[in-house]
User: Which sequence fits this backbone?
């Protein structure tokens, strides 16, 4: 089963995404504290990271860059999602795979996720 | 006709300076010529009076001895020495002409009558002089001279010509100086004007206008810079606000939309499912409204940035027609069947936004109808995309206004909801692609057209 790590500081959105992905047969871990992401990467070893950009205290873009600078996590695809549609412009710069704007359609979210794991 | 107000500041300054110099030089030369002529006349009077005096003294004996011949001879000799004296006369005590001599062709009229008892007079470019002949303090006669002033005319003519040439020289010099001097003033003002023009054109407030002066222009420039700083500061605050508002509005909306979509998927009871669907429709409306408001704020603050790339327009047209078809239960969206076969250089996502907006408008404003048609027309320079509906149409007087912010057609304001932002955003996006957007409507139905410039690049098939 494909493992997906979801990071978002809004717990409602977090559990929403967790539910959607679980219902679609993904193994999901959801965290609201961005500080936990690096340890989770080691423990959980996800196949894909779904990462919010405005994380309250941290910028998802920076975290994404850090993940790509680390040899252990370099090859794990990251999909950014944000309420600010302008963030879509930064995916190349921070080496993310894709961008999903919020609010999202469930079908759209699933389509994007399935592009990178399967 | 060219009005003074319409001339550029630079030319106005040059014109004023040249005009002032010419007027000043003109006055100076005028005064110079007049005083010069007067002093010439005065000198002439003085010299003629002395000649008359000498003549008088020398003719005393001729008068006393009644010897007009010698007096006439003397007058004749005078003529050869001073050819400007064209007539001379000596009268006796009774005023009768004793001796006279005149150049051929000189009119003979009474000099005393012209003089009226004055000792000299200028009449018709000629000088008339009279001087009494006195012997032992007794007037025994009079000397009259008629002098032509052609010399004065010649001098005047020469001075006028000189003045004219000097005036021309002055004109040239004052023009050259004006061009140099105005540069100092107008360059500074033009710097300001150029920055203002740039701001108007791009909407971006970039750098301050540089100026080192301490005069009124400097005050103006400083005030302008200060104002721009304030605007920049406000814009920054506004942008921060938009960013925060965007996040704060969209975050709960994301949850609501997601959970309602989940409900919609899971709900089996038809009536409940109907309710959930209605809620979902309205959430989507709210979502697009929030998007539109944020887009308008971006347009207003000049922050709507396009990501220009080449893309296949046929692919986009098919995708948008399909996407619109998915959400419409009432209308069939018909795409004209000939592919454009062109690459468009533009922001694919924004063009998609325009297409979706126009298609959803076409559906929204043609209630009771069932068809919306998408057509394309290719010309040498542009691609025109037409979205045709058979709905309520747009009145002629509203056909430009509908592209304005918050404008809502009188026909629809009452019974079809909307905010009047969609077409405003479309217009901005299309204008920024150097295209045009317009509506054609004659009563029933309307065609919304927009054009995109064509570059005629070879088609690239993009395989997903």
Assistant:
């Amino acid at each position: 089963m494909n493992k997906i790590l979801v990071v978002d500081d809004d717990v409602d959105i977090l559990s929403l995404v967790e539910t959607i992905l679980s219902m679609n047969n993904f193994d999901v871990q959801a965290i609201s504290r961005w500080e936990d992401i690096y340890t989770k990467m080691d423990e959980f070893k996800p196949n894909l990271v779904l990462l919010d950009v405005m994380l309250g205290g941290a910028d998802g873009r920076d975290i994404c860059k850090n993940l790509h600078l680390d040899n252990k996590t370099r090859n794990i695809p990251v999909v950014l999602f944000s309420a600010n549609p302008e963030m879509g412009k930064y995916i190349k710069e921070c080496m993310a795979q894709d961008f999903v704007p919020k609010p999202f359609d469930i079908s759209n979210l699933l389509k994007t996720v399935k592009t990178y794991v399967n | 006709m060219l009005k003074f107000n319409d001339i550029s500041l630079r030319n106005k300054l040059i014109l004023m300076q040249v005009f002032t110099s010419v007027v000043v030089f003109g006055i100076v030369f005028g005064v110079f010529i007049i005083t010069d002529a007067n002093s010439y006349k005065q000198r002439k009077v003085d010299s003629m009076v002395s000649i008359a005096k000498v003549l008088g003294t020398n003719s005393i004996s001729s008068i006393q001895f009644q010897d007009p011949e010698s007096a006439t001879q003397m007058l004749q000799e005078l003529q050869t020495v001073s050819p400007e004296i064209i007539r001379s006369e000596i009268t006796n005590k009774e005023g009768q002409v004793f001796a006279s001599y005149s150049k051929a062709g000189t009119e003979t009229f009474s000099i005393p009558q012209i003089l009226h008892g004055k000792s000299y007079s200028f009449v018709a470019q000629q000088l008339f002089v009279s001087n009494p002949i006195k012997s032992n303090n007794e007037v025994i006669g009079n000397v009259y001279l008629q002098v032509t002033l052609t010399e004065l005319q010649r001098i005047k003519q020469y001075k006028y010509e000189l003045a004219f040439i000097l005036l021309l020289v002055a004109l040239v010099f004052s023009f050259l100086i004006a061009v140099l001097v105005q540069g100092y003033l107008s360059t500074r003002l033009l710097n300001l004007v150029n920055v203002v023009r740039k701001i108007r054109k791009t909407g971006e407030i970039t750098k301050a206008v540089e100026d080192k002066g301490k005069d009124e222009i400097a005050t103006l420039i400083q005030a302008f810079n200060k104002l721009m700083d304030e605007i920049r500061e406000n814009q920054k605050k506004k942008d921060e606000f938009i960013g925060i508002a965007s996040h704060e509005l969209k975050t709960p909306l994301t949850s609501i939309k997601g959970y309602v979509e989940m409900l919609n998927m899971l709900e089996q009871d038809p009536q409940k499912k109907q309710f959930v669907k209605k809620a979902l429709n309205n959430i989507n409306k709210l979502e697009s409204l929030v998007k539109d408001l944020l887009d308008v704020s971006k347009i207003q603050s000049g922050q709507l940035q396009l990501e220009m790339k080449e893309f296949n327009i046929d692919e986009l047209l098919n995708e948008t027609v399909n996407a619109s078809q998915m959400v419409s239960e009432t209308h069939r969206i018909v795409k004209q069947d000939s592919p454009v076969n062109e690459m468009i250089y533009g922001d694919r996502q924004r063009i998609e936004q325009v297409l979706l907006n126009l298609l959803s408008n076409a559906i929204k404003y043609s209630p009771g109808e069932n068809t919306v048609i998408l057509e394309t027309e290719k010309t040498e320079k542009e691609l025109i995309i037409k979205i045709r509906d058979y709905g309520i149409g747009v009145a002629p007087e509203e056909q430009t206004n509908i592209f304005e912010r918050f404008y809502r057609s009188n026909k629809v304001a009452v019974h079809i909801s909307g905010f009047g932002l969609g077409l405003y955003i479309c217009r901005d996006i299309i204008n920024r692609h150097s295209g045009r957007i317009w509506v054609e409507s004659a009563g029933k139905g309307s065609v919304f057209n927009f054009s995109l410039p064509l570059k005629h690049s070879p088609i690239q098939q993009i395989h997903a």
Notes: Chain B has a mean pLDDT of 85. The first strand of chain B starts at residue 85 and ends at 92. Chain B touches chain A through 21 residues (CB under 8 Å). DSSP finds ten helices and twelve strands in chain B.
